[in-house]
Amino acid sequence: MNNLKENLDNVCARIAAACAKAARRPGEIRLLAVSKQHPAERIRGLYDLGQRAFGENYAQEALAKQSRLQDLDIEWHFIGPLQSNKTREVAAHFDWVQSADRQKILRRLSEQRPGALPPLNVCIQVNIDREPQKAGVLPEAAGDLAGALIELPGLRLRGLMTIPRMGDGKHDPGDSYRRMHELFRSLQAAGLEMDTLSMGMSADLEQAIMHGSTMLRIGTDLLGPRRGGDAA
User: Fold this and answer.
1) pTM higher than 0.90, yes or no?
2) pLDDT 10s per residue in the chain (232 long)?
């Protein structure tokens, strides 16, 4: 998994095949490279191949990489759990936040977004499978939180994000993705302007595309195994 071009070509081929099966266009799917625990040099290498959007989970790690890569026009996404003491750094140094799940965090991001920057793109994280160990608002509360977001200056609602329950003999993640797509469409029908449904990782991108994902968060299959050993 060390050949970045081969990795990117393989992921793009999987996306194209999944889109063909789902009767969708590959252009409907955005690819977010999850670069947490990968060195700045690997990010630069993937950037040189045309990848522009990168996702980070940890503010301090990301800020160090941003400093080393400030000559590149990278679109930075914060995708990890966001604590109150990190909102100022995230509001000032990221283009997207995909893990907003409570009003306190939204208010702080709004207050701390520098006025010279464009609005911060925000996705509401939804705990679609109601797993107690995971962050995210419950599905029935997503609409109220999104409604609160659109009233805050400096923020722009873009959509929803989820990390579903892992698939096993008792659970098909495709069912989680189907319910997320239904929630996304229902909120659009209720008048919320959203264009992004962020779901799907290396192991299950095909199912995510089949069930309406517009953004995939891919780490391992693009950048290789990370130091921490987890997969995305």
Assistant:
1) yes
2) 469 999 999 999 999 999 999 999 999 999 999 999 999 999 999 999 999 999 999 999 999 999 999 999 999 999 999 999 999 999 999 999 999 999 999 999 999 999 999 999 999 999 999 999 999 999 999 999 999 999 999 999 999 999 998 766 677 778 999 999 999 999 999 999 999 999 999 989 999 999 999 999 999 999 998 765 444 5
Structure tokens at 171: 């659970």
* Residues with Cβ within 8 Å of residue 192, at least 6 apart in sequence: 143, 146, 147, 150, 157
Please, is 195 exposed, middle or buried when counting C-beta atoms within 10 Å of its C-beta (0-12, 13-18, 19+)?
exposed
For residues 13 and 109, give the distance between their C-alpha atoms in angstroms, rounded to a whole number: 37
Q: Rounded distance, CA 8 to CA 55, Å?
A: 16
Q: What is the DSSP letter of 117?
A: S
Full set of structural domains in the chain with CATH: 4-219 (3.20.20.10)
